[in-house]
Amino acid sequence: MITTSLIVSCLIFLLIAVRQWLPPSVRIWHIMVAGASVLLVLGEISPAEAWTAIDWNVIAYLFGVFAIGAALYDAGVSHLIGRRIAAMTSHGAALAVVTVATTICSAVLTNDASAIIGTPIVLMLARALRLPAGPLLIALCATVTVGSMFSPVGNPQNILIATRGGLANPVTTFLLWLTVPTALSLVVVYLWSRFLISRGNDGTNFDLHDLPEPSDNGSAWPAYLAVGLLVVLIVADSVMQGLGHTQRIPFGIASLVACAPVFLFSPNRLAVVKELDWATLAFFVAMFIVTGSLLQSGSLQAMLGERQADLGELPVIALGSFWASQIFSNVPVVEIYLHLVHDWEIPELMMLAGISTLAGNLFIISAASNVIVVQQAERFGKTPFTFWQFTSGVLPITLASVVITYAWIAFVSTLN
């Protein structure tokens, strides 16, 4: 059954895919917001239904970590890390440090915040070491995505699974099931990124003055306190669940509480508000509306028919979540999957988390963190790569990491 919601969703992906031929002023979030607006104007989804379709827990978490990320940048963290890495004489060692630092940041602050913090670091590295910026930014996108896979707060789709999947202890569950495939996949990212960097030379000459310099007024401690609070709240929630407590600390609430020191004590709070990635938040809000309209239209349910009963099988989850993420992005795909399947087991949830995350490494639109890297680079006046340059650069990483993750989860599931 073809509906207006399905047609609009496909058009959104098509426009993003051919965005390189659109006017430079047209951004990815513009296309998503325009699509959501069309659905609202056509009555495919009412304002009340759109409000309900938006997962405000995810939006709240992203707002908080975006604020923390902006505060960290404003405090000079990106410049400090970037300069220290750029001082390294070995390109391989510098890339290894970027990979490890980006992974830690993704696991704690989500892949989206890691993309915000990591983009200026990579641009500084490209300029200082005279490396091609395009391959380095592609390596950043891949690392941000893979590094977020083993954490329940590593990315928005993991947050959805952790909060709606009925997991008793999300932190422990994700670590036990996904640490090994994450580590193996990061090795693939590192090796392939070194190859891309050695092969490519885009002739880009980055000027460090293009990157806004952070303020130097002793404002770093609220940002560091915010990071500490976020880690403490997430770990505390995990410990409480491990001890059998039924009370939860919603990730969205934890994020808002954690970012409070930034707005209460930082002298640069107005700059943080200005630098906060509102475009990506708008992208997510619009994406939830588009997804809600699509679910409400019944197009997917009608197209699936009797096959909907097979959605909970491991091979179907892997194939379905991977390819559907290329059309609708991984966050709405997970949202749809959690609505269509009701009796979840841990292996199935981990397969959904792992493969939907790794699916973000195929197209720019497949993961919001990719969008953020592009938008951040464009804020600094740089166009890093085209849609298809990105895909050709990450395709080997995508294939290898998906195979590794599927094989590992399928193997571990046979032991339980």
TrEMBL record:
The chain crosses the membrane at residues 6-22, 54-73, 85-109, 129-150, 171-192, 221-240, 249-266, 278-295, 316-338, 350-373, 385-409. Keywords: Cell membrane, Membrane, Transmembrane, Transmembrane helix, Transport. GO terms for cellular component: plasma membrane. It holds the Pfam family CitMHS. It is found in: Cell membrane. Residues 20-338 form the Citrate transporter-like domain. Its main location: membrane. InterPro entries: Cit_transptr-like_dom. GO terms for biological process: transmembrane transport. It is a multi-pass membrane protein. This is Arsenic efflux pump protein.
